[in-house]
Amino acid sequence: MTQPLPIPIRPTGASGSTSRRGETSVRSAPWWVDAILLLALAALAYGVAKAASRWSTPLAPNVQIDLSPWLLPTYAGLSTLRMATAYLVSLIFALVYARAAASSRGAERVMMPVLDILQSIPILSFMPGVVLGLAALFPGRTLGLELAAILLIFTSQAWNLAFSFHQSLITIPQELDEAATIYRLKGWRRFTRLELPFGMIPLITNSMMSWAGGWFFLTAAEQFSLGAEHLRLPGLGSYLAGAAEHGDARALTLGILTLVVVIVLLDQLLWRPLIAWSDKFKFEQSGTEAPTSAVLDAIVQSAVVEWVVHTTRRFGGRVGRLLRRNSSSSPQAPRGQWPAWIHLAPNIVSGALFAVAILWGGVAAFHTVAGLSASTWSLIGISAAATLGRTVISLIVALWTVPVGVAIGMNPRWSKRMQPIVQVIASIPATAVFPAFVGALIGVSGGLNIAAILLMVLGTQWYVLFNVIAGAMAIPSDLNDAAVNYNIGGWRRWRTLILPAIFPYLVTGMITATGGAWNASIVSEYVLFAGRQISTVGLGAVIARAADQGQFALLLAATLVMAAIVITVNRVAWRRLYRLAESRYRLG
Description:
Layout: H1 31-55, H2 72-102, H3 105-120, H4 123-137, H5 142-154, H6 158-170, H7 174-182, H8 187-198, H9 200-216, H10 218-221, E1 223-226, E2 229-232, H11 236-246, H12 249-278, H13 294-299, H14 303-329, H15 340-343, H16 345-369, H17 374-398, H18 401-410, H19 412-427, H20 430-441, H21 447-473, H22 477-485, H23 490-524, E3 526-529, E4 532-535, H24 539-549, H25 552-583
Antiparallel strand pairs: 1-2, 3-4
């Protein structure tokens, strides 16, 4: 039987069963830990069943959200359930998509630019179609609107995870790749024993960023305007939007405080234990101080957790055996019995169908935008240049997070103290505080331009920060020890160790931050303040206005221009940096 791939890991002190020096000790969790976990599972099951019962209720237009503080726990639970569902779908999508893209150069050339476009297309560009389509599938029911909200939250989480895992796959050290070949690990076994463990640290760190991005767009995902109809789902996002709409400062403050409480609880009960657990996948041999989690220490020997882990392993083993059986038992007809084109028929048919779909979509899009005047196209061009300038400025400003992320990621104590604070700040929807920026800067020359850049920075800097933290956490302590022994410090240490080590993560963070900046332009260039619409020149303002007024031709044209800019920037800058990270700046 093939043995597991011996990935170099260091002993972690994150659980009570393993000490820092690798001395193991077996202990059982107290009985009350199992009791709490069972109660938590029961409460979760009840909450999911209660939320599911709401999905079959009739859809009521123009719903008014009750701003009573007693409903905040219910709203928080509903929003968290939507976020969790969207995250699970995003995680599965990211793992499958990134693995497929990394499988061959041909697939990567197509799939990664598509991912760039998808992460840059604003929610408002496809929200009307998504809402109408899903509402039509479940006429008169809330389920269609719930699925639309989950899908829109998915669009704020999935791309970051996919980029992160793809970056991990293409930077696997050569010695680990060779070891996997020697141990004949292929398919599912290679994925579960090499690829997923190696990408675990950045995947968990970017999961925190994806949740923060989901909270950022929660307000837009829980309320929809389709003409005269205003559709809302009960949740924290719609509660915050309703409080801002009515000018209720008390309700807005309570809503933000509730959101902060939910974020802190998730950090302590989910993310902190996962970070401490994932430290064992760090690519190194020497021991160093590991992140800790009191929750992980408490549940590591829980009977409930052991049952969940055992069940998950059995399910994973069955999936792996099924995949291996299908791949080994698939009929392989001798190539001499059939013409060569027979073996290529599936690829030919799928390629032809894809080409027909692209051609049909191109013709339909051209027919839709053909009626736009030259002045409209001129406005789109000027607006695109203005938004591109703001995007570049916001990315430059966001680089302040690089030294902060390195300081947090390389110091376990700072990581333990600062990561919850950073996640709370990153998760607070900037749209809730943006009116304050507008009110303070509205009388200043170029005030809305400054406010727009500030909001775009708030929507981009966290992608860079979380990726840099992941990169700094993944630096092997062997290299840090070598730098100390050779007395390498200051700028020389940054140039020879830190920047090369975090470079792949920084590139991934900048790519996802670019998509976040284009998305943030929608809500930063066209805002409602004091009962009136205020806008500045920008592609985001054009898209927001077109969506608000139902001008679908203008909406499509502006979205296509945005996609064209993203593709161009991707080809000129990001793809080259991505290749540089893959070929030069990788461990091994």
